[in-house]
Amino acid sequence: QVQLVESGGGLVQAGASLRLSCTASGRPFSDRAMGWFRQAPGKEREFTASISVDSRTEYLDSVKGRFTISRDDAENTLYLHMNNLKPEDTAIYYCAAGRFNNHPSYTPSADFEFAPWGQGTQVTVSS
Predict the structure, then answer these.
(1) Buried b (16+ CB within 10 A) or exposed e, 3-17
(2) Kind of pairing, strands 121-126 and 10-13?
(3) CA distance from start to end of the chain
(4) Which H helix or E strand runs over 6?
(5) For 111-120, what is each residue's pLDDT tens digit?
(6) What average pLDDT does the structure give for the chain?
(7) CA nearest neighbour of 16 among 68, 89, 95, 92
(8) Are 5 and 116 in contact (CB under 8 A)?
(9) Which of 33, 52, 58, 126 has the fewest Cβ atoms within 10 Å of its own Cβ atom?
(10) How far is Cα 71 from Cα 90, in angstroms, rounded to an integer?
(11) Could you give the C-alpha distances from 1 to 25, 27, 98, 110, in angstroms and in order?
């Protein structure tokens, strides 16, 4: 069973950058797609980005061009590089492992396609 721990969140001003990390333990995740979700106060959790086994990527429209998801399978670590942060990016960010070992280019985006999940890391962007 993969266990996921996120880090790298914090309080930043609009326009700043942050890099979130998600370290996996328990088993390698190189055979799984991985993803980032976020949940803003009072809102549903939403898909943010995913990366396939062969590093194809998928993004929420509002973060395209600003966020980059990447993976380092040798280090069992998933990253989310966030540039030009906006107040509306304020949320708890969760990483998750894909549940299904599908095609290497599979980029899941729905909640049910992911398990397990990390505990989350808070990102707060002030205006």
Answers:
(1) ebebebbeebeeeee
(2) parallel
(3) 40
(4) strand 3-7
(5) 999 999 999 9
(6) 96
(7) 89
(8) no
(9) 126
(10) 23
(11) 8, 6, 12, 20
Reported residue count of the chain is 127
Q: What type of residue is 11?
A: L
Cα dist from 31 to 46, 95, 97, whole Å: 24, 16, 10
DSSP string, 72-123: ETTTTEEEEEE-S--GGG-EEEEEEEESS---TT----SGGGEEEE---EEE
pLDDT above 90 for 90: yes
Residue carrying structure tokens 């396939």: 52
Residue 106 near residue 52 (C-beta atoms within 8 A): yes
Rounded to 5°, angle at Cα 69 from 43 and 56: 115
- Write out the two tokens for 32: 């799984």
Helix (H) or strand (E) holding 62: none
Count the alpha carbons within 13 Å of 30 in the hemisphere toward its beta carbon: 6
% of the chain exceeding 90 in pLDDT: 92
CA distance 125 to 103: 36
